[in-house]
Write a structure and sequence with these properties.
199 residues, Immunoglobulin-like, 4 helices
Length: 199
Amino acid sequence: MKRLALGLSTALLLLCSAAHADIITYQATLNGTNEDPQNNSSGTGQARVTIDDVLGTMTVNASFSGLSAGTTASHIHCCTALPFAGTAGVATSLPTFPAFPLGVTAGTYTETFDFSNLSTWNPAFVNNNGGNVAGAQAAFLAGLASGRAYLNIHTSAFPRGEIRGFLTEVPEPGSLALFGLGAAGLAGLRRRRVTAAAS
């Protein structure tokens, strides 16, 4: 019985890891307080970046409102020296995401990028990370995973960035459920051991 419980718990934890390997989602709350240096913008926004490591794609979803002036650019910067602090150069395409709404104070954006396409990347980011898209992708994914990448929206009032947010990983509900089942199985096994020892 002990081996069965342990085997089941291990299998569930492995399934949790396997399910997580295909799609990884990051999110950020965008505001002026998150800028460096901070600003007093009343603008706000949300960003969601979904990585599909099987297809080799990245989907960027963003919404924003209340900006002080019209948008001039938006992109993802990577990689800061420390997690969730500081500034970094632009990692994605320049001068802005393709088809990002410009000259507006509110809007939404959705675009899917192919990691293997050179146009997805800032040429300087590629050159600084091995000189090829594989190196750029590896550095970018490492930056995302370690909290050293942020999405920034620039405006004419704040050319260096009016609102930004560091991207943090969103746990998958299925993975959390599987992890919970595995943890419950291990807790049950421990409880039986304690009960048996007390008898």
